[in-house]
Automatic annotation (TrEMBL):
Keyword hit for Kinase: yes
Name this protein carries in UniProt: Uncharacterized protein
Record keywords: Coiled coil, Kinase, Phosphoprotein, Serine/threonine-protein kinase, Transferase
Coiled coil spans: 75-102
Coiled coil keyword on record: yes
The organism of origin for this protein: Caenorhabditis latens
Molecular function terms from GO: protein serine/threonine kinase activity
Lineage, uppermost ranks: Eukaryota, Metazoa, Ecdysozoa, Nematoda, Chromadorea
InterPro entries: PKK, STE20_Ser/Thr_Kinases
UniProt-listed Pfam families: PKK (PF12474)
Length: 292
């Protein structure tokens, strides 16, 4: 009888020691698991932060490159348009000069013809009107008439030259006003439209990326603009932060079990531990007992 009691007491002590050992192993495992998870979360956050910064730099460079490319294309198009306008203006000026030169060449012959006709008419009128006049007086009148006609011809040629110069100068002034006025206005309008389009479109970081990104941290930009990127631990309900997670050993204090079967549930772990555990505590117990 005494031997049986001693054996039962020894078995009870062995069972309690075994339970204490299992509790210690379980606590150590949970602490190591927690440390590893914290390290993993910190590494993931650091990688995401680095990736977000790199994406921010790339999108900024892409934004600037696209704007510079469009501006360069617009400048090239503007230069081509200006060259075409100047070419058209040059052709119009050359056409006006050719027309003026042609008229200037034809004008003396026309004036000579008109002078001859007027001279014949004047002589005929003198012959009819002044029959009793002396020949010398008639010659004097004809000489004065020819002199007036030559002066009139010279004045007509000078007037034609002056009128041609005025027309050419007016055309040049009109072309200069067209080149310096409307194309510059169109160019400034297109530049403003491009800038407005880029400002309204922004980048994948948002419309005001260039202003907000300077005051926002990469983690905020990542949460606000890249929320569609799946997180490696998206199945858990953890609200991740960038600060390192400290280990709290009190979360893993496991009460010692008595000889009786304890019906109380196991210690309640934090939700960020329960959401990522793949194997349950009982599975680990069975695994450890099997290895022992």
């Amino acid at each position: 009888m005494q031997l049986q009691q001693n054996a039962e007491a020894m078995l009870q002590r062995i069972a309690e020691k075994h339970k204490e050992k299992m509790d210690s192993i379980e606590k150590q495992f949970l602490m190591q698991k927690h440390i590893l998870l914290c390290a993993k979360e910190n590494d993931v956050l650091e990688l995401e932060d680095k990736e977000t910064k790199e994406k921010l730099v790339l999108y900024r460079n892409l934004f600037n490159d696209e704007y510079s490319l469009l501006q360069t294309k617009m400048l090239a198009r503007h230069q081509r348009v200006m060259a075409q306008i100047e070419k058209n203006h040059q052709e119009e000026e050359e056409e006006l000069i050719r027309a003026s030169t042609l008229d200037r060449r034809k004008l003396p012959k026309m004036l000579h013809t008109e002078i001859k006709r007027r001279s014949v008419m004047f002589k005929e009128s003198l012959r009819i009107s002044f029959t009793n006049q002396l020949n010398s007086e008639m010659q004097e009148r004809i000489w004065r008439f020819d002199r007036q006609e030559s002066l009139r011809m010279r004045a007509a040629l000078e007037d034609h030259d002056m009128k041609s110069q005025k027309e050419l100068q007016a055309l040049k002034d009109r072309h200069h006003a067209a080149v310096t006025g409307q194309p510059e206005t169109v160019f400034k309008k297109e530049s403003q439209e491009i800038l407005t389009c880029f400002t309204a479109r922004g980048t994948p970081f948002g419309k005001s990326e260039l202003t907000d990104s300077a005051t926002s941290s990469p983690a905020q930009i990542q949460r606000n603009s890249f929320s569609s990127i799946p997180h490696p631990l998206a199945s858990s309900s953890i609200d991740f932060v960038a600060s390192p997670i400290k280990v709290n050993p009190e979360c893993f204090d496991v009460p010692k079990r008595s000889g009786k079967q304890d019906e109380t549930p196991p210690p309640k772990l934090p939700v960020h531990q329960l959401s990522v555990l793949v194997m349950t505590i009982e599975d680990w117990k069975l695994c450890l007992l099997g290895n022992a």
